[in-house]
Amino acid sequence: MSRQAQFVEHSNHFLDVPKIEGIALPSDTDCLLRCMRNDHCFSLNVAAFSLPNGSTSCDLLSTDKYNVSDKFKEDRTSHHFSIMNPCENFPCQHGGTCHANYETYDYSCACEQNYTGNNCEIPIRKKAENFVTFLLFLWRRGKKKTLHLFWVFCLPYYLQISSGRDCFYLLNAGHNRSGVYSVDPDGRGHFSAYCDMHTDGGGWTVFQRRQDGSVDFYRNWTDYKVGFGQLTGEF
């Protein structure tokens, strides 16, 4: 069954990622229809020039330029088509990676380490400075009871803390966007982990993530023990 999708054309561009299918079809339109019939296809490269027999060469891809923007290149021999998605306007700020949810037409931002917020718009250090200033204000005014109540009940919401015991804990604390968080499951220190806040109710700590073939997973035990890849991509 074909999906309903609207494509955006990026003339003279090429997304340099492994293809899930390469095929020659009668026209550009046939290439787009081929992608729509494949649930794993989210963009495609189409040759700018026809083959000698008049057909069009196209490569179906399992990712798009929003997830792997560093692989999106100018190329006069190709046109790139991507399914219109909520990451079109690059909403994630300060180097955050935008991950599109095509079913709900929503997105989530995987923020760099020093930023938080739905769009990675809030510097964590700045929030901490504001928090300390507010605590000093309460202390100097002798508002010890208010200070205690704020510390216990309001601190997590004021800071939008992106750390916790695990991803399920963070989900229950109000973090409903998938992305990179700081977790400490055994009390021995925090480390970064990717949390899936959408699949089957959310709250999943992801230990392996394969999506576009950009990372080689055929590795030895040592690599798997210490980890490899990027939390904002494949790992």
From TrEMBL:
Coiled-coil annotated spans: none
Pfam families: EGF (PF00008), Fibrinogen_C (PF00147)
Cystine crosslinks: C92-C109, C111-C120
Keyword Glycoprotein included in the entry's annotation: yes
A cellular component term, taken from the record's GO annotations: extracellular space
InterPro entries associated with the record: EGF (IPR000742), Fibrinogen-like_C (IPR036056), Fibrinogen_a/b/g_C_1 (IPR014716), Fibrinogen_a/b/g_C_dom (IPR002181), Fibrinogen_C-term_domain (IPR050373)
Ranges for domain Fibrinogen C-terminal: 158-235
Keywords of the record: Disulfide bond, EGF-like domain, Glycoprotein, Repeat, Signal
EGF-like domain segment(s): 83-121
Highest taxon above the source species: Eukaryota
Entries under NCBIfam families matching the protein: GGGWT_bact (NF040941)
PANTHER family in the cross-refs: FIBRINOGEN/TENASCIN/ANGIOPOEITIN
Protein name per the record: Fibrinogen C-terminal domain-containing protein
Organism this protein belongs to: Pocillopora damicornis
